[in-house]
Specification:
elongated
């Protein structure tokens, strides 16, 4: 696998993972019943982005490790997806 492709896949996967893990363990000001004047009650309570970045990185490393193992270890490629997926086309001959 080309390192540029690997870096691009890591970048895209990291952003997807970030948006997936972002709401986990998020405490809002409304949850703590302590709303700061001038903010909405659904605003986050305290910093949580460092944990979200770390979680997104861990998830991405796991996903990329699986992808790397499938492509380099087992020899699968994107061309093999059509052979792995079941055939959903309508049966034309009966």
């Amino acid at each position: 696998m080309n390192w540029v492709l690997l870096a691009a896949l890591f970048f895209v996967t990291w952003w997807l993972a970030l948006f997936i893990v972002l709401p986990f363990s998020l405490r809002t000001q409304d949850d703590d019943r302590d709303v700061t004047l001038g903010t909405v009650s659904s605003a986050p309570r305290g910093p949580h982005m460092r944990r979200a970045f770390l979680r997104a990185t861990v998830v991405t490393v796991v996903v990329m490790g699986i992808l790397y193992g499938l492509t380099m270890g087992l020899g699968f490629s994107f061309d093999d997806i059509m052979r792995i997926m079941p055939d959903f086309s309508p049966n034309t001959h009966r």
